[in-house]
């Protein structure tokens, strides 16, 4: 085996592996990328029910209630970004850090009736922290400008929204 | 004696020593001045002593509750147990950077002590590179994240630590993981030194490999420990979430695994030299970017450093110098390295090349998946995320040929192999793998888990049969087998063990893909069944812990009416931090984990119900057990005489004396 043929073999193996890696990556990207959406974006152009998205916003104060579906507990709450609110259904135990009036990110699909069924709810934050996506959304909707001090207190901000949404 | 000022001074002293350690040996080596080069080990050891003292000072500050130190005030509290006061030192940004540089200094010290048989010039250059990296990060520590900053006025008590982090698993996870990350600095330094020298030979491969293997063992342990922690602490029933922090440790592990294998080719056959040097540089570069970019939040969000832009800019500059510098040197000098060993594609070398290509392809996929969301955020302004479905779909198909090649590779001879002959050694293993395939069809569902499971059995069977063949089972007498067992190099035993460990981990992952869970809401005394087991909620009671209130459940699990175990999952409420944590209860028989979590309480009186999450996780412990076996395999091959630096020299000296 000469140096040239050996090199040829290595190049072929490299191309095959890198090619299949690229093909797999692209295929996986096309079906598995998860977009982040705020409730107002969901209301404006709802994604198709087979598309998984991440929905982020504030849990509307006083909206959490429980439904029992055949012995399985379902948590229902509304997530808002100050413009619109989406009803979220989640089967399972809400994370330890889940609070009404605080930010939350839910992974799931939008149903035909406009509700959101979550397969996972994330609330990895403490009293002061909010997920970056939610903070960005707040800035985008003009609820908070970082140039003028800290983010508004989550609970007060949210009751304000709740009233606005109600009225 | 151990105040923060002394610690600060010692850190500054270590930084100066590291700078000298960088400059003097390099200058000496270029002038061929043996005295200057000979200074390097002394400088490395004194830098280690100064840094060790500095670290000790920080530990003493935390232990003695010196809340005038900003770092201690922000992360410790009087009521914290002593163990967590000590381990809490590296549970925050400043302390972990200090620990990082300390481990780097320990590596330098180890090269000085164990590298006595290296040529002086090479050792000097290796230590100089390590010193340079050290100096950079100590400067980062001193200028932007000083762990010894004082605060005035000093608070009466510290702010305490996240209760989630008060866990022995997490306490020892960072040092082990960091040792893995930082350990790859030594192969990196060897690679840069070889590029400066313009020479890579079999001896270089022999010197580099033990360091790479040692770092790889630590990284393997660190990843397994981190995954185990998230399994039993976070209570989601998952073990790997493919989030950027986890991927940051997996990426250098993949290239590090490739490095450990390609260095064998350099050592035995003087081939793949340029590639091995590149892998050494890439692995350490990934370690560096992993620890610093991801952990400090640059990757997650480019704006996370907004409150302290100096830190982000400094770290980016440092990464650019280390990674850019070494790659430039590589581009300049690599063409002068030529390989001599010729081999056919079907040979041990060929299979190692295939292993490297596949590992690097998997690595490229993981890098793409990790980097794509932040780049999309930056360029297109769209927030997206990729998760488990993406990584599963893209990496598992690439793992299958890797597993297949793992079994064949060790059976192939060097240089040129005859396929028919090799396959005749593998009949038994293939038979066992076929049985495994049938078992997998019976037990598992889904094409990928079945294929992975059968291939994992194949890897284990092929590794065992390879060892059996080498020690001559069935060919020679019992005495002959014993003799051969003693003569079989430990690195062969280690390789077999590591491959078996990989097989065990893959089997564990396949088992976990079949995990079942149920979320139920029950009254006390009610029974629900999950996958053949009956789970009964016997009782729930409240109690008061040292700094929390807890709700504890008693859940009895019966299989066909026979009591298996009683689980006691808890929910703890830490009032001072206003945080709740979930204490998972796990019953394991090393085949199946029964995993119970208690959620919220609803209603009052007779109508009180509790939400429970019940998991049945087949083969879960095997995932971490396999990691441990892999690391033990690595450690075993480290104990091989041939791997110990300088051993060949001694052996040849003895042979000469005998002659």
From TrEMBL, chain B:
Transmembrane helix keyword on record: yes
Q: State whether keyword Secreted applies.
A: no
- Membrane-crossing residues? 6-27, 39-63, 97-114, 126-145, 176-196, 208-230, 250-267, 274-293, 313-332, 353-373, 393-414, 426-444, 450-468, 493-515, 619-639
Q: Name one GO cellular component term.
A: plasma membrane
Q: Which GO terms describe its molecular function?
A: heme binding; heme transmembrane transporter activity
Q: What is this protein called?
A: Cytochrome c-type biogenesis protein CycK
- Can you name the source organism? Gluconobacter sphaericus NBRC 12467
Q: Which UniProt keywords apply?
A: Cell inner membrane, Cell membrane, Cytochrome c-type biogenesis, Membrane, Transmembrane, Transmembrane helix
PANTHER family, alphabetized? CYTOCHROME C ASSEMBLY PROTEIN-RELATED, CYTOCHROME C-TYPE BIOGENESIS PROTEIN CCMF
- Could you tell me the membrane topology recorded for this protein? Multi-pass membrane protein
Per the database record, which ranges form the Cytochrome c-type biogenesis protein CcmF C-terminal domain? 316-641
Q: Where in the cell is it found?
A: Cell inner membrane
């Amino acid at each position: 085996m000469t140096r040239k043929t050996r090199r040829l073999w290595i190049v072929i193996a490299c191309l095959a592996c890198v090619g299949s890696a690229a093909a797999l990556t692209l295929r996986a990207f096309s079906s598995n990328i998860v977009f982040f959406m705020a409730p107002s974006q969901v209301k404006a152009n709802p994604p198709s029910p087979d598309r998984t998205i991440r929905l982020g916003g504030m849990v509307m104060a006083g909206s959490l209630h429980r439904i029992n579906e055949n012995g399985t507990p379902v948590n229902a709450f509304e997530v808002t970004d100050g413009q619109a609110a989406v009803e979220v259904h989640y089967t399972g135990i809400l994370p330890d850090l889940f609070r009404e009036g605080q930010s939350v990110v839910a992974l799931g699909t939008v149903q035909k009736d406009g509700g959101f069924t979550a397969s996972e709810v994330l609330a990895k934050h403490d009293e002061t922290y909010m997920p970056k996506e939610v903070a960005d959304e707040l800035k985008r909707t003009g609820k908070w400008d970082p140039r003028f001090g800290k983010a508004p207190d989550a609970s007060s901000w949210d009751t304000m929204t709740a009233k606005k949404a109600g009225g | 004696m151990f105040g923060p000022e002394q610690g600060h001074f010692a850190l500054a002293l270590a930084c100066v020593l590291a700078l000298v350690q960088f400059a003097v040996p390099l200058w000496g080596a270029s002038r061929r001045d043996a005295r200057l080069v000979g200074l390097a080990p002394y400088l490395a050891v004194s830098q280690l002593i100064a840094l060790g003292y500095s670290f000790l000072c920080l530990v003493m500050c935390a232990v003695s509750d010196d809340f005038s130190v900003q770092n201690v005030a922000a992360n410790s509290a009087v009521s914290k147990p002593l163990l967590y006061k000590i381990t809490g030192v590296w549970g925050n940004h400043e302390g972990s950077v200090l620990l990082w540089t300390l481990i780097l200094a320990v590596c330098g010290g180890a090269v000085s002590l164990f590298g006595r048989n290296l040529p002086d010039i090479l050792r000097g250059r290796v230590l100089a590179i390590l010193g340079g990296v050290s100096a950079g990060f100590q400067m980062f520590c001193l200028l932007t994240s000083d762990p010894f900053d004082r605060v005035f006025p000093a608070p009466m008590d510290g702010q305490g630590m996240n209760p989630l982090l008060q866990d022995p698993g997490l306490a020892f996870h960072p040092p082990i993981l960091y040792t893995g990350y930082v350990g790859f600095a030594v192969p990196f330094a060897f690679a840069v030194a070889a590029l400066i020298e313009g020479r890579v030979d079999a001896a270089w491969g022999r010197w580099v490999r033990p360091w790479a293997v040692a770092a790889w063992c630590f990284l393997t342990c660190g990843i397994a420990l981190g995954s185990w922690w998230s399994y039993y602490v976070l209570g989601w029933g998952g073990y790997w979430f493919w989030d950027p922090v986890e991927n940051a440790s997996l990426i250098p592990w993949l290239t590090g695994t490739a490095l450990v294998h390609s260095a064998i080719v350099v050592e035995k056959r003087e081939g793949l030299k340029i590639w091995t040097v590149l892998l050494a540089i890439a692995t350490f570069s990934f370690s560096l970017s992993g620890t610093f970019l991801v952990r400090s939040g640059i990757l997650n969000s480019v704006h996370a450093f907004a409150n302290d832009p100096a830190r982000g800019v400094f770290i980016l500059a440092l990464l650019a110098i280390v990674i850019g510098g070494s790659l430039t040197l590589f581009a300049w000098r690599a063409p002068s390295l030529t390989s001599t060993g010729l081999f056919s594609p079907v040979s041990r070398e060929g299979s190692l090349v295939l292993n490297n290509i596949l590992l690097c392809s998997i690595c490229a996929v993981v890098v793409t998946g990790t980097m794509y969301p932040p780049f999309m955020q930056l360029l297109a302004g769209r927030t997206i995320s990729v998760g488990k479905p993406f990584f599963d779909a893209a990496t598992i198909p690439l793992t299958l040929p890797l597993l297949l090649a793992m079994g064949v590779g060790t059976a192939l001879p060097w240089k040129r192999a005859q396929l028919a002959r090799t396959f005749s050694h593998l009949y038994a293993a293939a038979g066992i793998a076929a049985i495994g395939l049938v078992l997998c069809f019976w037990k598992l569902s889904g094409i990928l888990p079945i294929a992975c499971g059968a291939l994992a059995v194949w890897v284990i069977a092929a590794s065992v049969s390879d060892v059996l063949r080498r020690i001559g089972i069935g060919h020679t007498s019992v005495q002959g087998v014993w003799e051969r067992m003693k003569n079989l190099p430990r690195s062969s035993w280690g390789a077999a063990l590591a491959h078996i460990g990989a097989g065990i981990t893959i089997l564990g992952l396949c088992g976990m893909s079949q995990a079942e869970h149920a979320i139920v809401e029950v009254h006390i005394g009610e029974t629900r069944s999950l996958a053949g087991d009956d789970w009964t909620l016997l009782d729930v009671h409240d109690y008061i812990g040292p700094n929390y209130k807890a709700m504890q459940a008693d859940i009895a699990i019966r299989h066909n009416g026979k009591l298996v175990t009683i689980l006691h999952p808890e929910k703890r409420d830490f009032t001072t931090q206003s945080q709740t944590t979930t204490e998972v209860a796990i019953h394991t028989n090393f085949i199946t984990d029964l995993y119970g979590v208690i959620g919220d309480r609803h209603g009052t009186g007779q109508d009180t119900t509790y939400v429970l999450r019940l998991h049945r996780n087949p083969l879960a412990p095997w995932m971490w057990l396999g990691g441990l076996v892999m690391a033990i395999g690595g450690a075993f091959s480290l104990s091989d005489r041939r791997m110990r630096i300088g051993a060949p020299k001694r052996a040849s000296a003895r042979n000469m004396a005998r002659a």
